[in-house]
Structures are given as structure tokens and as C-alpha cells.
Design brief:
SH3 type barrels, 1 helix, 17% helix, alpha+beta
């Protein structure tokens, strides 16, 4: 009986050992399988390409609307006398434009006290110039306009153009009339003229401190001095021979000071019959 029990016990113990040996590899394989599955799953998760990636989309930039600010309306100037418009408020500045009566101009700056206004050239809006206040009529409110500082005055350069106009007579004697235009940058205050008849070799001459216009013996207009851009007259003294049908040569000299002083410029004008 005792032996039978021992045999039975040994048999059960052997069976338990056999079962333990069989179960151990199964558990390891299961662990390995779980580990492999976890690694594969992790690999898939790590290598998977993300979807629904947010993409930066350009948005429209709105331009702010200009504020409703009241714009000052520039006053207008109407030309009432033919006038020059220059780069500065004086006759020695470069000429920009000439305006006829009736021309309308926008006034940009106030009068600086020298009798000039700063206006916009309608033919070239980017260009502006100064003109004499006495030659325009300003319409509109100028109180808010700025005062501009003019550029430095250019170096004075006397110059003039001359041409023969006609013969006239006073008390039975002829005299020749020449027009002179101040095309320089300074006024002229005196003149000299010598007229020579090349046919008979006779001449007359005289000096003047004005550029007056005469009609016959009558003084029609007093011009003194001859300012920049202005046209005046230089007349010969009476000619006591018949020179109208002869070839004549006039030497005309204008000077910046009276009595032929200062800077003088000379021109020669030939008069053909």
C-alpha cells in the first residue's frame, strides 16, 4: 500500500514537472509575440505619414480707406496783363513761361512782400514759378497758404536784343526808332546810339537815360529803367539828310547805370533799304 502510494506520488510529481516544462516555452513565445507586435505597431505609428497637415494660406491684406479729411481748395489767379513767370521773385531769375491775359493759374504760396505770387504752371503741373502780383487777380482765400523762401538770386548777366522798327519825323526831320528788349538779368538805365549812313558816310549819335516811346514829337510812354523782360526804345537824334533809302548801321550800347556807367553791352544792327 505504502509502495503504491509512493509510486502514485512519483507519477503525479513527474506529470507536474512535465506540464511545467511544456507551459514555460508557451509563455515565452507569447511574450515574444506580444513584444514583436508592440514593436511592429510602434514602427507603424512612427513611420506613418501624418494626414490633414495644416497649410498656411495667404490671406488678403485690406488697404485702409483714406480718412475723409477736407482738402483745401487752392485759390486761382487770373492773368490780367501778359506776364512772365520765373524761377524766382525777380526779373534776374530764369524764365519758365509767359501767360496771356485770361490764363487761370493755381496759387501755391502767399505773397512774400516783394509783389510776387508763387503759382503752378498748368502746362507742366510739376513746374512752379513766380509772377508779378500786379499782373494777376487772385480769387479765393489765401490766408492758409504757406510762405515760400525763394532760391538764391542768380549772378547778374546784362543782355539785350535790338532791331530796327521804323522811321518817324519831328519838326520836318527824320529820326530812326530801334526797339531794345532786356533779355538779361539786370535792369538797364542808360543807352547810347550811333547811326551811320554807309552810303554817304555821315552819322548822328546821342546818349539817353531813358527808353521812352515817341510818336512824332510827342512822348507816348516813359520807360526808365528798362527792367528784365521789358521792351523799350532807343531813338536817333534828327537826321538832316535823306537816309531812308540808304544802307545804315546802328551801334547801340545799353548800360546798367545812368550816364553810360556800370556794365555796358553793345549790339550792331544793319538797316537795309
Amino acid at each position: 500500500m505504502r509502495r503504491t502510494f509512493l509510486q502514485l506520488y512519483c507519477l503525479l510529481l513527474s506529470g507536474a514537472l512535465i506540464l511545467s516544462a511544456c507551459n514555460l516555452p508557451v509563455r515565452e513565445a507569447t511574450a515574444e509575440a506580444v513584444t514583436e507586435t508592440a514593436i511592429s505597431t510602434a514602427t507603424v505609428e512612427l513611420t506613418a505619414t501624418p494626414t490633414n497637415t495644416a497649410t498656411a494660406t495667404a490671406t488678403e491684406t485690406l488697404t485702409p480707406e483714406p480718412s475723409a479729411t477736407a482738402t483745401m481748395e487752392l485759390p486761382l489767379a487770373e492773368v490780367v496783363r501778359k506776364t512772365n513767370c520765373r524761377t524766382g521773385p525777380a526779373g534776374d531769375y530764369d524764365l519758365v513761361a509767359e501767360y496771356e491775359v485770361g490764363q487761370m493759374l493755381q496759387v501755391v504760396a502767399r505773397d512774400l512782400g516783394a509783389g510776387y505770387w508763387f503759382v503752378q504752371n498748368p502746362e507742366k503741373p510739376e513746374e512752379q514759378c513766380w509772377l508779378l502780383a500786379q499782373n494777376i487777380r487772385v480769387n479765393g482765400d489765401t490766408a492758409a497758404l504757406p510762405k515760400f523762401t525763394p532760391p538764391p538770386s542768380p549772378t547778374a548777366a546784362p543782355y539785350f536784343n535790338a532791331r530796327f522798327k521804323k522811321f518817324d519825323s519831328c519838326t520836318g526831320n527824320d529820326f530812326a526808332i530801334f526797339t531794345v528788349e532786356n533779355a538779361g538779368s539786370v535792369p538797364f538805365r542808360s543807352a547810347y546810339i550811333k547811326l551811320t549812313d554807309l552810303r554817304v558816310n555821315r552819322s548822328v549819335e546821342q546818349a539817353l537815360n531813358a527808353f521812352d516811346q515817341f510818336v512824332g514829337c510827342t512822348l507816348a510812354k516813359n520807360i526808365a529803367p528798362l527792367n528784365q523782360g521789358q521792351t523799350g526804345y532807343v531813338n536817333t537824334p534828327p537826321i538832316h539828310w535823306n537816309a531812308r533809302s540808304n544802307k545804315l548801321r546802328a551801334v547801340i550800347m545799353l548800360c546798367t547805370e545812368q550816364n553810360l556807367k556800370g556794365t555796358c553791352v553793345t549790339r550792331t544792327v544793319d538797316v537795309k533799304p
